[in-house]
Amino acid sequence: MNKFALAYNKSIVEAFDLINQEYDTTISQAAELMVASIERDELIHVFGTGGHSTMGAMEIFWRAGSLAPVNPLLDASLLPSNGAVHSNWMERTEGLAANIMHSYGVKKGETLIIVNAYGINPVTIDAALTAQAMGVKTIGVTSTGFANSVPRDARMRHSTGKNLHELVDVFVDCHLPLGDATVAFEGLNQKVGPTSTILNSYCLNLLIVATVEKLLAKNIEPPVWMSANLPEGDAANKKWHKKYNERVKHLR
Known about the structure:
The protein is globular and about 55 Å long. It has one domain (3-244): Rossmann fold (3-Layer(aba) Sandwich), CATH 3.40.50.10490. By secondary structure, it is of the alpha/beta class. It has helices spanning 3-20, 23-39, 54-59, 84-91, 96-103, 122-134, 196-217, 233-244, and strands at 44-48, 70-72, 111-115, 137-142, 170-173. Strand 1, helix 3 (54-59) and strand 2 form a beta-alpha-beta unit. Helices cover 41% and strands 9% of the residues. Helix 2 (23-39) packs across helix 7.
């Protein structure tokens, strides 16, 4: 294997190995919250709070092998597709998260997954603080390594200087390497090969795996999507559409 490809592969595998060690602890604890929501016939909300973290909300929504009651909070103002710099500005806007959460119908007692590998920007922190005030259970997919290295008064931070991992009910560490990118080239100061989206997605899909494992152990049918590209997919998914269409905003 090419040495640069090998270096990138090594950084991803090392982080995966660290995440795997937490399957029976924090990932399992987070999955318990998700199971409880499904038992109560509630939605599992997932909020990727700006920039590329928005892909975390997309990753487990309407995905073959993922849970049907996932409700992604996909506010257009935070999507890089509507302007990369604009997305940065918006994720640094305090007060925005509460309005987004209310517009998507997040309710007291439900579960909210907040996905942001950096875990420091205002929308991220406001989402956690709003959830606390509402009595919403929170799972944070984030890291300590980056958050703890950024000064508390840095301009991209929330005015409280808080980190996501300090505020959620269950913290799932995605083990983001400092700086995100991991492959170094001689003569280039900036590393390449970002890892945050891959690591966020791996954590999220392990949460799905753990949730399904626990549902089956309780003899509860997991509400799981089949690929719509399989001949039998539409028929298999029909009952989940009927159950969740009116509640999951982006499903219909």
